[in-house]
Task: structure prediction
Amino acid sequence: MRSGTWLHRAWDSDVGYSFRTSPVAMAAAFVAFVCVFCAVFANLVAPHHPYDLATLELSDAFLPPSWVEGGNAKYWLGTDDQGRDILSVLMYGARISLLVGVASVILSMLIGVTLGLVAGFVGGRTDAFIMRVCDVILSFPAILVALLIAGVGRALFPNANDFVVFVVLVLSISLAGGGGWVQYARTVRGSTMVERNREYVQAARVTGVSSLRIMRKHVLPNILGPVMVLATIQVATAIITEATLSFLGVGAPPNSPSLGTLIQVGNKFLFSGNWWITVFPGLMLVAIALSVNLLGDWLRDALNPRLR
Result:
């Protein structure tokens, strides 16, 4: 009953009304849901297991999509250079891309929100120091910072397992200036500077509440709206950054390829006529990024009272 009541209230709220009256938001949510569902449950919905060596047949390599002459109905989107089903590879590759993207955004949020709260609430030299660090990081292109961190990580751990590789990849995306923690820090700092002068914060200070508790219990809940909107948009940015790094060879490991790795592999055979190996991973990446960006734009408008 409680869960049903909560869902009913959410559906009838202003945000719920904005969602169900926006065809673009509903279509984007549907596309994002399908992509996420297929990625999370790839081992259940994928027609083949592309990384089971016992099921691979090299004689099926470079088969075109099933509707193209020479295609096989067994492989709807064709096969790659190793005979792996493209549709199944997309589902497993999207899982890696989404995992890295979401983990990068969560880490960026933790770092950026914490530093932004401290900078905006404390002010003074602490605020100036944190903002100057942000300015320095923003002066470098985000992809170069990510490449540098990922390259150094590969050099320090040349024989690392997949977990360490993914940790380095997440760190490289989170610490990059353009799509990392800096955006959260600057956004939260501005909102915190407004909230710290409100009456409820002054009342909490008068009653002897510690600054840490004020930031955590009073200020943070009131600035989560812009943070959630930014996080939604940054998921798409993080996924594209991961795909770029993987395309350049410093991203996901070859035995756990992401969409960027699949595009990089397919690019080698693009001019030989095997277009499907790189086109379909690219379309999958575009579908995920576009749907998430559209949801982020809708959420920004839905949470902005001036646009209601």
Notes: The chain is about 70% helix and 0% strand. Residues 145 and 176 are 5 Å apart (CA to CA). The first helix runs from residue 2 to 12.
